[in-house]
Each structure stands twice: as C-alpha cells, then as structure tokens.
C-alpha cells in the first residue's frame, strides 16, 4: 500500500476552496454553542462601531452645521458613544476569549487524533515517511489551523459583517455615490478570486519544505556521532543547506503571494476615498448632500475598505490553514492495510506457525521472498542463517506480522495470522529487534513496557518474578537493578545492555514464539552463555527463532534454515548450513 504522504498529496484531486472551508468548519462543529456566542459578540461589536459613525454624522448636522448650535446635544451624543464603545470593547474581549478556547481545544483534539492514527498505522507507513516531516505535521501544521480558528476566523466574520453594514449604509444613504464607492471593491474581489489558488499553492509548497527541513534536522541529530566520527559534516551541512535554501525560497514565494494583496487593496481603497471626495463635494455643491453626512460617508468608505484590507491578511491565514489541513487530512484519511480479517477455518495443526506459499516484496521492484513454505513446531529452536541482506529479518517480520504477505498465507496455531487481534498476536509472539527500542525511564519501566501483568507489582515482587523466570543473572548486570536509569538515545547504557533489557522484556511476556533477531550480537560471550541458558530453560512449549551471524549461537538449534535470494531452505545439519553459507548463492 502507498503510504508516502508527499506522493499521496501530489496525486490527490484538487478540492475547491469552499469544500475545504466546509471540512475545516466540521473540525469545530461540536463547538456550535461557543461559535454562536462568539458570532453574536462579533455582530454586536461590528454593529455598534458602524452605528457610531452614523451618530457622529447626524450629531454634526443636527447640532453643529446648523444656525442654532447646541453643544449640550453634542455632549449627550458623546455619552451615548462612550457607552457604545464600552459595550463594543467587552463583546470583542468576550469573543477573543471564546475563540481562543475553541482554537486550543481543536489543536489538542487534532494532535491527539494524528498521534492515535500514527499508533495504528503499520511499519510500512514509517518506512515511507520521515519522522521529521511527521513531527512538523503534528506541531507546525496543527498550529497553523489553531491560528486561523483562534485569531482569524472571527476577525474574518467581523470584517465581513462590518463591510456588509458599511456597504448597506453607503448604498441606502445615496445610491449613486454608494455604487461609485464600491466599484473598486469589485476589482479587488476579482483579483482575490483569481490569485487564491496560486496563494494556496505557494503556502502548501512552503509547509512541505518546512516538513523537509524538520526531517533533515532530525536525521542529522540522530546521526550526529557518525557525522562527527566520519568527518562527513560537509555532507550533512550541504544537505541541510539545500533544505534550508528550499525553505527560504518557498518562504519568500509564500510571503510574496501572501502580501501581494496588501498594496492592491491599499491602492483601490485610496481610489474609493477619491471617488467619495470628488463625487461627494459635487453632490454638496448641487445641494443633494450634506457635509456632516459626507464625513460619515468617508468613515463608512473606510469601514468598508479597512476590513477588506484586513481580509487580505486573513485570507492568507485561511489559505495557509487550508494547506496545513490538506497535509493533516492526508494522515487522518490513511487506514492500515494490516486489518484483522474474519477468522476462517482453523486447521488442526501440530505446528505453531506455518508459511504456506508466501511471496513478499517491500515494493514492486523486487520480490524478497518467493513462494516460501515451512513449519515451526511447538517447543523447538530454529535458526535462520544467510548472507547479509538475504531476507532473515524480512522472514521474521512476516512471522510477527509486521507486514502482510503479497501472496500466500501465514498460519498461527492453524489459523490465518491476520485473523488474530493485535493484542492476542503480540502476546503469543515476542520479537527482539536488531535495534532494541528503549525509552527514557528506568529498567523497570522498560521491562514492563506493553506488559499489563506486573504493572502493580512492587519492586520486590517484580524482582521475584524476574528470579522465577531465570532472569536474575541479567538484572544483576545493572548496578541499580530495576531503578537503573535508561536514556532513549542510549547514552549511559551500552547497546549490549539495551539488548539485555529487550530480552527480559520479551521473556517476561511469556510468549509462545520468541524471535531473536541478532539479539546477542553486542553481548560478550559469557553473558551470551547466560542468555543461552535462559533460552534453554524457557517453558518446554516455547518455540524459538534465532537469527544470528555468530555460529556458536545457532549450534544447538533443532533446525537451521538458510535464507537467501528469495528462498528459505531447510539446511539439515549445522555442517550443511555452514557449507551453504560458505559456498551458497549470495545475494545478487
Ligand atoms: N523497509 C524496507 N524497504 C525496502 N527494502 C527493504 C526494507 N527492509 C529490507 N529491505 C530489503 O530486503 C532485503 C532483505 O533484507 P533483510 O533485512 O530481510 O535481510 P537480512 O538477511 O535480515 O540482513 P542482515 O543480516 O543484514 O540483517 C534486502 O535487500 C533489503 O535491502
């Protein structure tokens, strides 16, 4: 299945602005009550600000530009205006608090939704996407949406309400003057509609390059030791410089696109002022208009064009939010292809696991396993040997269902492995990976990862469980026992020690099938002997699959399989396996 987010995004059909807006609003549809209250607050605010200018114009005409000036009337109007501004202030404040909360809650929910989605996606997804890009989607893109919802959305609506109110005033007071004032706005509207797709594209490109830059930083931070050891800093510096340059170029592109509205809006709003000035004075000269109203008219033209100018900035925030939403929605729309299928017929089987005519490839280019069939019996120890890149880890990954076959079936206890719920399957199969994963915490926390059975045990009780499982000698290697601190980046703990913790973690889960993929590669010979004793003392029914390059590790296996060039062949004796390793076909 295709999981590469950048490719999926490039090939996705383009969606219209309005359908994207609809999808964006669905994100906060459960906040209906808060949205209505914020909307009412913004209507009150805009309405009061609009009415204030009408009152000012009327006050001037009624009390100033008249034969009997009435300053008391002006003072009364000022009192009313003060009260109106106070209410407008509180409604604006209330709306800001409401929408700030909506934005933060949406950010919280979205980040959770993306993270939960990542938990269910298969290994293939993580093979095809860079961690840095995913982090950027979770952090940066969700924040772009938050900014739109918490800051821009209500301003957006407020601006539209103010514009509508001002537009209605302009047209209703004097239709001809109003229509002339609004002509430049029609030009701006056409310009905005025409340039929007271009602006969105520029912003999407910029967000993608932010993801690329974040992936580059993450990769070089992960590999900093290799970079320093090999003095290959130039290589990473070059790659970083390229990603940074790409980000710089796309940011400039997005900046130009986003700001291209500002001068155009400025120019056309000045044009509108000019129209009001020239045409308004003309109307006064022919006694069809009053000077006080012209002052109001100027202000209403401003009330119309200022929000329009603001809309330019808000439109940018909207386009950025839509580009961010595109990137997020591609993750949310993904489904795992490792679904649990309906359980078919359970075949009575003495073997614990069976490969039946299995074909597998990571991508279309090359088949890694070709028509493979073999059985693993309960309680036996199997070794997988073969040259580097021969397909051992791939075979083990299919045994643990990290991937599904392209063709053929893997049966666990006579049942299609795909019919097991993940919890049941992972309880039956323990997998110690080539590179064990530990997280920052203590040995205890790492041992109990994914194991509900002992979480409430005291340290003494857990130590007893460890002793009973014959793992005491391994725990003794850690100076502070269960309380020994572990860092996920492995500093302060050796790779061998990490493998020991992963080994204890897997054995304590008491799996029916235990896979060790090069799990002793970094362990000294004496400790390896300890591990081998522990493996021999596992319950008699436990099946073991051991992948190892060190030959002494596989000496005592019941069966040895030779894995290479798409084949998994039973090698028979240890000597025959050695023969195959020395003279067998190597990977092409
Ligand atoms: N995630 C992946 N995507 C694409 N190809 C892969 C992936 N993982 C492994 N391969 C390819 O599959 C082939 C088998 O790899 P695999 O890791 O199974 O070999 P291996 O026998 O375990 O090697 P080693 O002894 O070095 O661990 C190799 O050619 C490898 O390049």
From TrEMBL:
Membrane disposition: Multi-pass membrane protein
One Pfam short name: ABC_tran
Keyword set, alphabetical order: ATP-binding, Membrane, Nucleotide-binding, Transmembrane, Transmembrane helix
Native source species: Mucilaginibacter gotjawali
GO molecular function list: ABC-type oligopeptide transporter activity; ATP binding; ATP hydrolysis activity
Subcellular location: Cell membrane
GO annotation, cellular component aspect: plasma membrane
The name this protein goes by in its record: Putative ABC transporter ATP-binding protein
């Amino acid at each position: 299945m295709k999981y590469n987010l950048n490719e999926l995004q490039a090939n996705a059909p383009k969606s219209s602005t309005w359908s994207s807006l609809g999808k964006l609003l669905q994100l906060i549809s459960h906040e209906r009550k808060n949205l209505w209250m914020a909307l009412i607050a913004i209507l009150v605010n805009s309405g009061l600000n609009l009415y204030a200018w009408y009152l000012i114009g009327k006050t001037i005409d009624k009390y100033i530009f008249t034969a009997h000036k009435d300053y008391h009337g002006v003072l009364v109007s000022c009192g009313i205006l003060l009260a109106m501004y106070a209410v407008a202030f509180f409604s604006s404040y209330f709306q800001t608090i409401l929408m700030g909360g909506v934005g933060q809650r949406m950010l919280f929910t979205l980040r959770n939704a993306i993270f939960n989605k990542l938990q269910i996606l298969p290994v293939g997804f993580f093979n095809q996407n860079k961690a840095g890009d995913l982090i950027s989607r979770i952090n940066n893109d969700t924040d772009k949406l938050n900014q739109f919802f918490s800051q821009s959305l209500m301003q957006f609506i407020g601006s539209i309400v103010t514009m509508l109110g001002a537009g209605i005033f302009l047209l209703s007071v004097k239709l001809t003057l109003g229509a002339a004032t609004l002509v430049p706005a029609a030009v701006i509207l056409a310009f905005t509609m025409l340039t929007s797709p271009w602006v969105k594209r520029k912003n999407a490109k910029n967000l993608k390059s932010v993801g690329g830059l974040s992936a580059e930083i993450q990769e070089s931070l992960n590999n900093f030791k290799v970079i320093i050891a090999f003095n290959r800093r130039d290589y990473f510096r070059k790659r970083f410089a390229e990603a940074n340059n790409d980000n710089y170029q796309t940011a400039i592109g997005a900046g130009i696109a986003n700001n291209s509205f500002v001068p155009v809006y400025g120019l056309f709003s000045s044009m509108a002022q000019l129209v009001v000035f020239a045409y308004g004075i003309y109307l006064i000269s022919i006694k069809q208009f009053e000077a006080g109203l012209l002052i109001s008219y100027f202000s209403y033209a401003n009330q119309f064009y200022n929000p329009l100018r603001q809309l330019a900035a808000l439109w940018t925030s909207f386009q950025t939010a839509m580009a961010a939403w595109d990137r997020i929605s591609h993750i949310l729309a993904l489904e795992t292809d490792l679904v649990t299928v309906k359980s078919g017929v359970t075949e009575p089987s003495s073997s614990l696991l069976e490969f039946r005519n299995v074909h597998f490839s990571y991508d279309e280019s090359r088949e890694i396993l070709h028509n493979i069939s073999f059985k693993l019996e309960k309680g036996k120890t199997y070794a997988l040997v073969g040259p580097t890149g021969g397909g051992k880890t791939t075979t083990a990954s299919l045994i643990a269902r990290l991937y599904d076959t392209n063709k053929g079936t893997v049966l666990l206890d006579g049942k299609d492995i795909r019919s097991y719920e993940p919890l049941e399957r992972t309880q039956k199969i323990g997998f110690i990976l080539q590179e064990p994963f530990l997280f920052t915490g203590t040995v205890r926390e790492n041992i109990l990862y994914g194991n509900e059975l002992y979480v409430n045990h005291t340290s003494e009780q857990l130590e007893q469980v460890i002793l009973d499982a014959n793992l005491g000698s391994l725990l003794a290697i850690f100076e502070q026992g269960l309380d020994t601190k572990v860092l996920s980046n492995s500093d302060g703990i050796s790779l061998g020690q990490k493998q020991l913790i992963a080994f204890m973690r897997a054995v304590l889960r008491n799996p029916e099938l235990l896979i060790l993929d090069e799990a002793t590669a970094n362990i000294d010979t004496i400790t390896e002997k300890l591990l081998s004793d522990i493996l021999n003392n596992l319950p008699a029914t436990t099946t073991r699959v051991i992948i190892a390059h060190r030959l002494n590790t596989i000496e005592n296996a019941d069966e040895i399989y030779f894995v290479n060039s798409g084949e998994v062949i039973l090698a028979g004796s240890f000597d025959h396996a050695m023969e195959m390793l020395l003279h067998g076909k190597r990977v092409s």
